[in-house]
Amino acid sequence: MTTTPIGEGKVSIVIPCHNHGVMLREALASVEEVRNENLLEVIIVDDGSSDAETIRILKEVTDAGYKVVSQPNLRVSAARNTGIRLANGEFILPLDNDNRLRDVYLKEGVKLLKDNPGIGVIYADAEYFGEKTGRWHVQEFDLLSLIRKNFIDACALYRKALWEQVGGYDEQMPWMGLEDWDFWLRVACHGGSFFHLPEIGFEYRVRADSLIARTIGFDGRVAREDLNLVEASPRLAKLIDYIFSHPEMAFYKWVRETDEEVQRLRGQLRIVETSYSYRLGRALLAPPRLLRKLWRRSH
User: Fold this and answer.
1) Whose CA, among 192, 200, 236, 294, lies 20 to 30 Å from 123?
2) 224 class by beta-carbon count within 10 Å (0-12 exposed, 13-18 middle, 19+ buried)
3) What is the CATH number of the domain that holds 151?
């Protein structure tokens, strides 16, 4: 008689926590609201929290039956890796402790992964709250778009086997904030497939002191569309250089550099085409072109 492994077809939610205990309470409350038979466990990784309120709240949630693992402050990549390493679920769902979960991943997401073995990652839209409201409409998956910039949040449902295959989140990045982009790119490098679920999967808190804002000076997810993010943040440029410096990213680096050159040349062409001299030249050449066209038609 064979027995089904305890975590097969089940989800492990991993929540890194470094201070902000009040927000952790909100995150856990959202998990309890959507909990169903597909959720196996919730693992909270205390990444060296130092404020008294968070320490007290972590004790409360431990007493309430949550699995809390403590480690020194090793940053979010290490915290996620610690939790995922301990996870028993076949599927992993990271949730930042300042965000809130909806039921889409535990319902539709799990079913999609079970029914489609070829899909590795399910990602969904989000709803902003905090310092911004509205829906974050995430695009359909396109590899070139992912090479250009990240559009998939860390809160996405994926197979633990993918995490094992790529070696987890990079703990050596000089700054945190783009570790999810680096992870998704490496998943793509290893053949992982992505599927966009066009429903709200979680609620994304926008706040001035978020990790990404502290890292590069702003949250790229809510920045103005016309803002050149790399020019606006030297630290972002260094992080991008770091991500694409790894040998496995060599092809993606070439694609990115080629795409940037194409975009640069297109920009220069647009400048030429809108210049006075170019428009004047086209106007002067229009009659001869028209005569040549008429001559060809008559012969």
Assistant:
1) 236
2) exposed
3) 3.90.550.10
Each residue of 79-136: pLDDT tens digit? 999 999 999 999 999 999 999 999 999 999 999 999 999 999 999 999 999 888 899 9
pLDDT at 199 over 90: yes
Asked if residue 248 is part of any domain, the answer here is: no
CA distances from 122 to 106, 125, 184, 262, 276 (A): 11, 11, 12, 31, 50
Of 170, 33, 39, whose CA–CA distance to 107 is shortest? Answer: 39
For 34, the enclosing helix (H) or strand (E) is helix 21-34
Higher pLDDT, 231 or 32: 32
Same domain, yes or no: 174 and 291: no
Beta-ladder partners of 69: 45
Beta strand ranges found along the chain (DSSP E):
11-17, 39-47, 67-71, 91-94, 100-101, 121-130, 134-136, 157-159, 194-206
Domain count, the chain: 2
198, 127: one domain: yes
Domain-located, residue 176: yes
